[in-house]
Amino acid sequence: MSNWKTYTLGKLVKSGGGKIHTGPFGSQLHASDYVQSGIPCIMPANMKENRVDLSGISFISEQDAARLSKYLVKGGDIVYSRRGDVTLKALIKDEEEGFFCGTGCLLLRPGSEIDPEFLTYYLSTDSIKHWIVKQAVGATMPNLNTGIFSSIPFTAPTKKEQQKLAAVISSINQKIELNNKINAELEAMAKLIYDYWFVQFDFPDANGKPYKSSGGKMAYNKALKREIPEGWEAVPLDYLVNVITGNVSPKDMDPNTPYIGLEHIPRKTIVLSEWETAKKVNSDKCVFKKYDILFGKIRPYFHKVGITFVNGITSTDTIVLRPKKEEFFGLAIQTVFTDIFIETATQTSTGTKMPRANWTVLKNYKVAIPSSQLLNKYQSIIDGVFSRIESSVYQNKKLSTLRDWLLPLLMNGQVTVKETEEKFRQE
Q1: Closest residue by Cα to residue 45 from 88, 108, 3
Q2: pTM confidence score
Q3: What is the predicted pLDDT for the residue at 1?
Q4: On the chain, which terminus has fewer CB atoms closer than 10 Å, C or N?
Q5: Category of 48 on φ-ψ map: left (φ > 0), alpha (ψ -120 to 50) or beta
Q6: Count of alpha carbons within 13 Å of 256, Cβ hemisphere only?
């Protein structure tokens, strides 16, 4: 660490021509100024794993963006949450240049003397996050200001060395991101197959041609109020799945038992890849098994649906569904994730302050089901898809553990790039 020096972040940023300033105040950008499409506006809610999460992002008009152009971000900037969870941040990629730094944020432009990726990882170390939280002001809600941010102690080597160290962590993150993209494509493929087979009824017929499009016989079903392939049946959802009930105390569980809450179940995907452990919770939870289906039962969380790849415990705010047979798995998960099922859950939910899904109604939701032979053929395809997804989820878990172990060692100079490369070769 002979070439490592300590600075205040603000001083080094300023000497490199960078800047630190707050995002716009509410008086500059009102709630009524947000539009359906336009310039993406980065808020703390859009910061996930040091990246911008575009799901649910808000927009401002090009006119407002031009009026408040000092808040437009550039590649290499870091946008920080200024209040609440003051450890949230997002490194701006080149393709996100021109996005808007929203209210409740700080904009950090590192300048020419700091590598943006290295700084992002440095700010992600526990010691610096604890320092920031401790310095944040406010009795009810922690707040950051430019003075606190400028005072952050920054110990680092030369920019060239920073880039080498950051590249190690970045290579791991890139592999994780690639796995996530592959999983998204696999999930989309599974959804497409479901749509073809169970919505459009164009599953392969005896000659390998799309059934309905090739003139396959259809019959009107009174329960579903539509035509379905001849020989298919309409069954209630509880023909496919059981609801798992009964709660346990985390105190009676192994503290390393995986715990999945509503916060871990993602939106717009059924790939569930995050969980904590039982030692993090203190109230009764519901037990689930590997390949169970979790469904958020509180409105507006009905769209939160996930497949479990572990045995564990979950929040009592989820419904645990277990397919009664292996061949029911693919049909059950895709049915529960359809817009029409989620809308049914919304319309039939009960309660005023916190409406909940009503299983006594949802269990009778009608599903079109084919012969066992066709259903098994469909499930064999789905098994292959989700086997690959599961493999990527576990690989990402290992990569995340490796990254989190390396991060502080690289950021404080305990491990050099050469040492890291040699360790990788030995493993």
Answers
A1: 88
A2: 0.85
A3: 63
A4: C
A5: beta
A6: 0
| Residues 216, 412: Cα–Cα separation, whole Å | 67
Q: How far apart are CA 73 and CA 98, in angstroms?
A: 5
Q: Which residue has the tokens 């080597």?
A: 157
Mean pLDDT across 304-333: 95
| Look-up of token digits 């021109």 | 98
Query: To the nearest 10°, the Cα dihedral for 62, 68, 73, 74?
Result: 80
354, with CB counted inside 10 A (0-12, 13-18, 19+), is exposed
d(CA 413, CA 3): 10
Instruction: Tell me the β-bridge partners of 22.
Output: 106
C-alpha 100: how far from chain center: 22
- The full 3-state SS of 95-129, as one line of letters, equals HHCCCEECCCEEEEECCCCCCHHHHHHHCCCHHHH
Query: At how many degrees (to 10) do helices 329-336 and 372-411 cross?
Result: 70
Question: Three-state DSSP class for 89?
Answer: strand
Distance between CA atoms of residues 88 and 51, nearest Å: 10
Give the strand pairing for 105-109 and 78-81. Answer: antiparallel
Domains of the chain: 5-156 (3.90.220.20), 157-210+371-427 (1.10.287), 233-369 (3.90.220.20)
The chain-wide mean pLDDT, for the chain, equals 92
pLDDT at 258 over 90: yes
Q: List the alpha helices (DSSP H) in 144-272.
A: 146-150, 159-194
Q: Which amino acid is at 342?
A: I
Using an 8 Å Cβ cutoff, are 91 and 117 in contact? yes
Across 15-39, average pLDDT: 91
**Per-residue buried b or exposed e for 179-198, using 16+ beta carbons within 10 Å of the residue's own CB:** bbeebeebbeebeebbebbb
Residue whose entry in the numeric block shows the structure tokens 């972040």: 9
